[in-house]
Amino acid sequence: MPSKYLAILFDIDGTLIISGGAGAASWRMAFDELYGIPADIGQYTDTGMTDPDVGRQTFVAVMHRQPSRAEFAKVLERRLYYLYQMVADSKDYRVLDGVEELLPRLLDDGYLLGIVTGNLEAAAHIKLHRAKLNRFFSFGGYGSDAADRGELTRIALTRASLVYGEDVRPAQCLVIGDTPHDAEGAHAAGIKCVGVASGKFNVAQLNAGGADYVITSLKEALPL
Ligand SMILES: [Mg+2]
User: Fold this and answer.
1) Is the pLDDT of residue 161 over 90?
2) How far is the centre of ligand 1, averaged over its atoms, from the C-alpha of 205 (Å)?
């Protein structure tokens, strides 16, 4: 039976790869270089936030004021600069179980693959680059498109339609992510979410967090 799905949208961190702390390390180095403060984003932000929110909230927490536009742009630039090196050097970077087999198989089966992530677009590609995963994805919605995960998921859908050449409806998409935030963002765009318990949340937490289906790793069959 042909699948009712056409496009599959993947979260990055905890779903496709684990960067081994490279994300947080790069923010720390950017704030340290610019302000002499090795800011720990884990103290000021939570895992579901988009990169611009993480940068702004951390700036306000350590500097006790809002950044100017120039300051904010510089923080983002330095953070991307360090991210490239931190990802390249990270000892604990790894591609999660099943990913390298699943992505080519989905393409063979005719699905369009995309990214939905709170990362800035450039940060997303830096994280995927080390494992040569960029080539599987023909569209995406990123933290640089919207602060709200629902909105960036809708933007991803619009881009899927542009790539596909006709309207891609929410019911034809599936989001795959490792946190309840992924389920919230997917549902806000009218899309069902598969929770994969490969990150910080287990099966019970993902079920309670609103995922429509839950699997333990991407070695398991998707509900296609
Ligand atoms: Mg994630």
Assistant:
1) yes
2) 14
